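Bench log. Compound arrived from synthesis this morning; before running ITC I wanted a structural hypothesis for how cobalt (II) ion sits in the protein. Inputs:
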Amino acid sequence: MGVKIVDTTLRDAHQSLFATRMTTEEILSVAPILDKAGFYALEVWGGATFDACLRFLNEDPWERLRAIRKACPNTKLQMLFRGQNILGYRHYSDDVVDMFCKKSIENGIDIIRVFDALNDLRNLKQAVVSTKKYGGHCQIALSYTTSPVHTVEYYADLAKRIEKELGADSICIKDMAGVLTPQDAKALFTALKKNTKLPLELHSHCTGGICEMTYMAAIEAGCDIIDCSVTPLSNGTGQPSAQAMNVALAGTKYDPKLDKEKMFEAEPLLEKIKTKNLNNGKMTVKSLSVNPNILKYQVPGGMLSNLTSQLKEQNAMDRYDEVLKEIPNVRKDLGYPPLVTPLSQMVGTQAVLNVLSGQRYKMVAKEIKDYCHGRYGQWPAPVDPKILKQIVGDDEIIKCRPADLLEPEFEALKEKYKDIAKCDEDVLSLALFEAVATEFLKKKYAPKVEEQDEVVEFNLYV
Ligand code: CO
């Protein structure tokens, strides 16, 4: 059996390379070809793609999913899911998580890849239970980072618990920043293989310039599935090229046996999308270049661009290097949370506050306060006691699973949005992205006005 390849062209590629702006029409132009190329699955849906549909593209993400499902009858469809946060930024009650899994599967998803920024298995439990309940495949993605607590043993132990305690179907190492090195991948996958029988997958990024070598080392150590994108929407801040990996592994026992002709057919269509985004400035040469500096700071690409826009807004771009150096300090203070959504935004914002206010933790964002109260789950390592005291004072810190404190809320949300929502899918869109979904659905359901012929006046004398 060769290595399996999951195609991320329709999710992570455009998210990493040009701000998630691929339209449904563009997706559908290429999806039927990708469907026949021999991929194990196509990753097509996730938080950013959902948000971008509503916010920037005036599209219904649920309709997009149904259209992709129809266009791709042969290949499994995969989505990325933020545990108890679903696709949003706060914890939702279990019944909302359950309803989201149900509706995702009903509308066409086969594999739900669930991750939690803190790798707190309690935050993943409900998504696993619900995915299995509705007949889906549940993959747990462990957020990869390096720190004194994020050792090979830490991940190997989690893998064992994911198989035994959670009952998930497969495990992915999610290296969102692209910092996993070939030698660490070898040690990591060797240990994972010893600790679990579940299929193992690796998701990484080419930003640092080492990703293909890391993939190869992981494959040789027992990794079963790798995430790639179809060139020309590969590499840079995105995933390695599916065509290139297919060639590199051809003729070996790892041969993924992708259909070269199909990918060749997809290339000009993707080239057209890429050119459009280069011309409109959504894609920059920077996102296509190798940047080994990320290996030093371990900051994901998306976080760097957020940071730049935050500092530009405050007219403080001259403090960029100071903020960049402050990020690892904040991470250390907070017990080394992996820098993935929503922690990446939270740590980044706190680093900006620490630098710009001139006094560390003088100003603290609400989310960081919640984190220090235990409301996001268990910290990987204890928060620095002095800073904890400064932030929470004598408040009690939550030890239980944060969602245990939440009452069921789906019916209340349904009632709240009854004037705008026409189906449960609409309720879920509103629950996750209230402001943008409200605006979108109002437009969507507005009575259609007969389009009037526009009166065009020519001024012949100009
Ligand atoms: Co990614």
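What the model suggests: Residues 457-462 have pLDDT under 50 and may be disordered. The pocket of cobalt (II) ion is lined by residues 12, 176, 203, 205 (CB under 6 Å).
ITC booked for Thursday regardless.
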